[in-house]
Amino acid sequence: MMANNETNDLRSETMRANIRRGERTRVVIVxxxxxxxxxxxxxxxxxxxxxxxxxxxxxxxxxxxYQVASAGLEPSNIAFPIRRLFQGYPxxxxxxxxxxxxxxxxxxxxxxxxxxxxxxxxxxxxxxTNFFGNEQIARxxxxxxxxxxxxxxxxxxxHNLELAETETDADKRQKFMNVVIVGGGPSxxxxxxxxxEMKKYVVPRDYPDLADRMHIYLVxxxxxxxxxxxxxxxxxxxxxxxxxxxxxxxxxxxxxxxGRVVRMKNGETIESANVxxxxxxxxxxxxxxPDEAVGHAGRLLCDRMxxxxxxxxxxxxxxxxxxxGDAAWPQGHPQLAQVALQQAxxxxxxxxxxxxxxxxxxxxxKQMEVRRAHGLAVVACRAPAVDSxxxxxxxxxxxxxxxxxxxxxxxxxxxxxx
Length: 418
Fold this sequence. Notes:
Largest sheet: 5 strands, parallel
Oligomer: single chain
Structural class: alpha/beta
Shape: elongated
Number of helices: 12
Strand order of the largest sheet: 5-2-1-9-20
Number of strands: 21
């Protein structure tokens, strides 16, 4: 059998993107998350050649990843084949590849399947978990950014429940039953709610001897949950979680976790074999960017049109971007799905405007859907994992989100580029 490194070497020498350039303007999109997908679909009537590159061949629906972790949904329910999403779109290409660097002089990206040239490049590579340099926490805690993360966590929790069933020492048994979620943002709140439902409905049914012994802690360093939202929504979420039996701890900053004990800056400790880290993110990186373009947590500094600082015809959207110059958002826009979707549509329109000699328009974030989205998240949190009717509704919501992105996204322009 060929060793892995030999396989990778052979792949790098023989693989090619195999996309004929032609005469059409080429837009290359790196990353097919919600923002990348929205951008690609918004260009469907532009007449451009659109090339989408992602390390996976599926698009996942992040708002429902926590339902996979709590055994409420299966991975296939929230992951959709990228190629199927673009079926019937002329001049669209997808390549599953790792993107290593940008060569701005050549207007090309270097990938694991070869070089891909661009006329316009849009980076929508998203973010990854930020452990803030604490390697021990990174080794022992579970992140929650991908379907794979959710599956690993689900298997881990179920495994520990099995261990708790046969553990005779009460303290050790409780360690297997304690779940600690670090981070009081939307992800932390949603995961806490989903696990609370798992505790209420799944554990008594499948593990009757462990009923009422599972404890869920939501630990937040700040003084309130959902800091990016208004105080009323924050208070409502906190009260709802307490009602569901979650132990909410505010003003507790986690400093260490060795796989057994979670330690706080205030001296408090929690014994747990199940720690979920959703306390922060950092943007995914790529070589070839000017130093001046990299800002806080690796986010790319952009102007109001999402153009990357110090680069030409290169844009960044979503979690990877940080727009400067917007007085309403001096620290940058929140890393939310709605921001990525709106930026994607504006970038699509601006690329078309530039191709037709028109002025680009600055991005303006419209917040009107944030509260509604939060309300849906709270409802989803409360959906019993064993309620098949509710499960189908949650699943359908995920499917509809992608379908709406496909079918109702306005084309970037009515002008057909020849």
